Amino acid sequence: MLGPSGDAVGALGLLPWGVGADGRALDAGAGVGDQRTAADLHGEAVHAPWGRAASLAFLWPSNKGGFGSEIKVGAIEDIKTAIADGNGFAYYPEGRMWIVPYPEEALSKAQAVYSPQELAGMEKGILALYQKCPHLGCRVPQCETSQWFECPCHGSQYNHVGEKKGGPAPRGMDRFAMTVDGDNLTVDTGTIIQGPAIGTNTTGQEAEGPHCVTGGSAH
Ligand code: FES
Predict the structure, then answer these.
(1) N or C: which end of the chain has fewer CB within 10 A?
(2) How many angstroms separate the alpha carbon of residue 184 from the centre of ligand 1?
(3) What share of the chain in percent tops pLDDT 90?
């Protein structure tokens, strides 16, 4: 099983809050040893099932392992333990992803919104979210007090399962295709699935405590 980490920058030597030559904020997952440019980031593949509009088209090479490849994360029970240890959030720097719980009672709503590639994990109670904010690409941190994701760059907020709640982001957080073999989860970080449309709220989760950032206004 991969080890979750709350210290991706330290673990991987990642560049914090970078800004590309075109002024677009870079994903903090673009590390020093990662030769991607801002133009590369613009080309990441984002799949759009179930009527969600695709916006980008480039497949990150998957022959080097790590981000862009299929990652065998491990046993689902171990992942749930890691989520509990992380106060509701497990971070996997290898996949530039958060894995969070998905509530069983919300599955009937989820089945009307999410694709089979997403539901494969959700039906087992977990969900893999891409760390990159769909607004301008900052790494979105967890907010343990609200139990949301809250982006410090421009204040976009997402609920615990990455559905947009506020700020300028054009949609919910993007996510990855998942497969479950027995009790083991594999996340395909080469298949980024566009986040759900604004207004999607399958869990009805409100903030559970103080916010970590002030919500930004849409623009
Ligand atoms: S990059 Fe996250 S709100 Fe702008």
Answers:
(1) C
(2) 33
(3) 67
Residue 101 CA to residue 155 CA, distance in Å, equals: 23
Locate 193 and state its tokens: 């699935």
CATH superfamily of 44-193: Rieske [2Fe-2S] iron-sulphur domain (2.102.10.10)
Dist. CA 171–CA 173, nearest whole Å: 7
**Which token pair is 39?**
């133009």
Residue to substitute in 17, 24, 131, 138 for testing ligand 1 pocket (most ligand atoms within 8 angstroms of CB): 138
Q: What is the pLDDT of residues 5-49, one digit of tens each?
A: 543 333 332 222 333 333 333 343 333 333 333 333 444 666 665
Query: CA 17 to CA 28: how far, in whole Å?
Result: 6
Q: What's the pLDDT score for residue 169?
A: 98
**How many Å apart are CA 150 and CA 160, to the nearest integer?**
10
Cβ contact 145:212 at 8 Å:
yes
Q: What is the mean pLDDT of residues 152-161?
A: 98
Q: Average of pLDDT values for 131-146?
A: 98
Supply the residue whose CA is at minimum distance from atom 1 of ligand 1.
Answer: 136
Residue 25 in contact with ligand 1 by CB distance below 6 A: yes
Q: Indicate the domain borders of the chain.
A: 44-193
